[in-house]
Records
---
Amino acid sequence: MSRKNETTVFVLSLLITLVLVGSGAWAVNNSLIDITRILNLLGDKNGNSAARPDYTMKGIDRNSTFHSVPNIQTGRFPYGGSTTWAPIRRDVDAKIRQEIPQFQIVYTDPIGYPPGSGTGIQMLLRNQLAFSQSSRSVKEREHLRAQVRGLKLKEIPVAVDGIAIAVHPNLNIPGLTLSQLKNIYTGKITNWKDIGGPNQKIVPLSRPNQGGTVEFFIGNVLRNEEFGSNVETINTTTEALRKLSRDKGGIYYASAPEIVGQCGVKPLPIGKTFKKLIPPYQEPYITSSECPRKRNQLNTVAFSEAKYPITRRLFVIVKQDGQIDEEVGEAYAKLLLTSQGQELIAKAGFVRIR
């Protein structure tokens, strides 16, 4: 057994022993210390679960349609969450409402807060939503808040997405490594000439730190370091792309479907090293002069096989409380995991998970 594993086992054993000695066997079942949560906390240094379960639903026929899902609830059910999900809400959720009119899912904006994965999960915990859509996994502190309220949060993956990096169409660089991208957004690299580009000041753009995409970027690209003082905050992706099309030094990150097909910006290949740069688009690259007659398409193979280095899953977050909201969230996830749902998700610009 490695020293790291020995340490993990020792810490876990010590915690369990303290629970048993301090409160007796009753505490193991009823105290606020949840052994599963302790296992998750003993994950990697970035907070990823040591053994996060895969909640992809089983038993759904590959030729299934929305009407294959049994026992769909009747009523009006509010939901919300990640802005990344906007194409799914537009193209998939509208089709669900059309084909199953009794299942009236209604998107609900937060009051006083910007929409996003974290906001949606908080609204779910406050019983303001039946289920939530997230572009990141549930955080440990959110699991603990749910536990205090006497329930659990279940995350069901339904699609694959990637984070694409966009620059001005005329910026002539082959791509970026993850290390370079991190150094740009933490303020360590401030001119494109320092990484083989022109003598041009770099202007990094980011949305406010309240959505799942920003949180994912900070955790998985910046490795939980803070943004540099050179990063400019932009409220929406639409606003950022407009600014980027005019600013030759700009750079921005967002969900790949929001960037890859755009005419006014250029998505960059990204890699762990320069020898392994992977484009988020299908090659050959279509230049902005050819657009909109032709548009770049997502590199679905690289995303589905996790070859592209900034890949993530999209989740339906379900409240496990034994109430109707749990049934509604489960039903919605099953609809998305049918063959019909997965086909519509692909048409909306994301990658099928099954």
---
Amino acid sequence: MQSKMRIGLYPGTFDPVTHGHGDIIRRACALVDRLVIGVAINRDKGPMFTLEERVEMLKDYTAGLAEDTGCEIVVHPFENLLIQCARDVNATIIIRGLRAVADFEYEYQMVGMNRALDNTIETVFLMADARHQAIASKLVKEIARLDGDISKFVAPEVEKRLLEKFTG
């Protein structure tokens, strides 16, 4: 008897993708057979990078991970409700990364709403590795804008793209 494929959805804006995101992606791959990275369009956040740029950076960032982890990785842009995106990609698990207690409060509310919308989709929280708990895309952009060293927080391709945004 063939077992059902475990599909997880890891949503975010990824503006830009950081090593913190990469840590969650790698660890999520141990839990599922296919990991869909949902790139939120979210116009309210006013992302620095276009949707196409964020999708491309994620594809570059995860290129070797599928082979390393044995997990199929798909990058999928979405603009609808998270729970609807999960349904669209047949995910039974939503994966969320947590950095701090402040993250948990917001995420706790989201889980409650998502469970009310569809109680067949579980949410799994992965605590960020201690080395990555302070990394936030917003802070990385601020450090780059002020000409600080962001090489510890993002991949070289992402660093290059960020610096290009600030130097024109």
